[in-house]
């Protein structure tokens, strides 16, 4: 019997983390060494946020540099992990009757490769991305994630990549360290307490959590990947936070691991 894979939400933060060795990237590297080696990876990234459900179905996904204004060396990063068309088909079958387009164009965006280049630096584990349908409510995404649960027993590592708190309007762009905003701290604390208690309802309907939630999640794109991970625990499975920290006052780098 194959060992059940964990499911992990990564707070990916600044794309420059791909090039840097800091407390976050060192922790990502440690996670890669600590977990069982997956047969393949399914990643739900904040940066494939489109009006449909799609899955990458090519043999060799391209590395997408989906950002602007960064140093040249970041655009030169390649993460040549193979794709896995069979896994793409398996994902589509599990999500039925949701319509899933088999994509031959997208590839791996920086929400995926900026983390995986530290977790699996050899780029030798096949990777498939699943899009986030921007037209659907959070409850839809949580329900879709539950359909994907069997993959954990099939050697597939399910990853969500976004940020629990992601407010670029209040982010300190100057590069100097700043203290986290009080609402960042409060919302992250509240989310952690809900995760540890297994009370997912308020996290799904996060807008009901008040002003802190509205500031922490001004748009859903970076938050929804979390739902694809927290929907996956078995009864009695441990929830842990292998990476912690806040960048620029308003970007939570928290990682959430199930199993």
Gist of the model:
This protein is an alpha/beta fold and 259 residues long. The protein contains nine helices and twelve strands.
Write the layout of secondary structure elements.
Layout: E1 7-11, H1 23-34, E2 40-45, E3 49-50, E4 54-56, H2 72-75, H3 85-95, E5 101-103, H4 110-119, E6 127-129, E7 132-133, H5 138-147, E8 156-162, H6 182-197, H7 201-204, H8 211-216, H9 224-230, E9 239-240, E10 246-247, E11 251-252, E12 256-258
Parallel strand pairs: 1-8, 2-6, 2-8, 3-7, 4-5
Antiparallel strand pairs: 1-12, 9-12, 10-11
Helix pairs in contact: 1-4, 5-9
Give a structural overview.
With about 260 residues, the chain is of the alpha/beta class. The chain is about 30% helix and about 15% strand. The chain contains nine helices and twelve strands. The protein has helices spanning about 25-35, 70-75, 85-95, 110-120, 140-145, 180-195, 200-205, 210-215, 225-230, and strands at about 5-10, 40-45, 50, 55, 100-105, 125-130, 130-135, 155-160, 240, 245, 250, 255-259. The strands form four sheets. The chain has a six-stranded mixed beta sheet, with helices on both faces. Helix 1 (about 25-35) crosses helix 4 (about 110-120) and helix 5 runs parallel beside helix 9. The model has no long low-confidence stretch (mean pLDDT about 95).
């Amino acid at each position: 019997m194959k060992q059940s894979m964990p499911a992990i939400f990564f707070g990916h933060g600044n794309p420059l983390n791909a090039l840097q060795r800091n407390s976050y990237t060192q922790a990502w590297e440690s996670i890669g060494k600590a977990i069982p080696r997956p047969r393949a990876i399914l990643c739900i990234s904040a940066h494939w946020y489109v009006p449909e459900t799609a899955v990458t179905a090519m043999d060799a996904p391209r590395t997408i540099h989906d950002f602007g204004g960064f140093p040249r060396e970041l655009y030169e990063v390649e993460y040549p992990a193979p794709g896995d068309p069979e896994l793409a088909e398996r994902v589509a079958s599990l999500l039925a009757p949701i319509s899933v387009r088999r994509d031959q164009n997208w590839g791996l965006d920086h929400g995926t490769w900026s983390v995986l280049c530290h977790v699996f630096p050899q780029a030798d584990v096949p990777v498939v991305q699943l899009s986030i349908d921007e037209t659907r409510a959070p409850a839809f995404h949580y329900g879709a994630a539950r359909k994907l649960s069997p993959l954990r027993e099939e050697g597939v590592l399910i990853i969500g990549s976004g940020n629990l708190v992601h407010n670029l309007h209040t982010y300190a762009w100057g590069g100097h360290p700043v203290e986290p905003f009080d609402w960042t701290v409060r919302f992250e604390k509240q989310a952690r307490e809900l995760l540890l208690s297994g009370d997912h309802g308020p996290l799904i309907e996060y807008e009901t959590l008040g002003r802190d939630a509205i500031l922490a999640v001004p748009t859903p794109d970076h938050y929804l990947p979390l739902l694809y991970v927290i929907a996956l625990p078995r009864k009695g499975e441990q929830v842990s936070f292998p990476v912690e920290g806040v960048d620029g006052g308003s970007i939570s780098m928290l990682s959430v691991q199930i199993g």
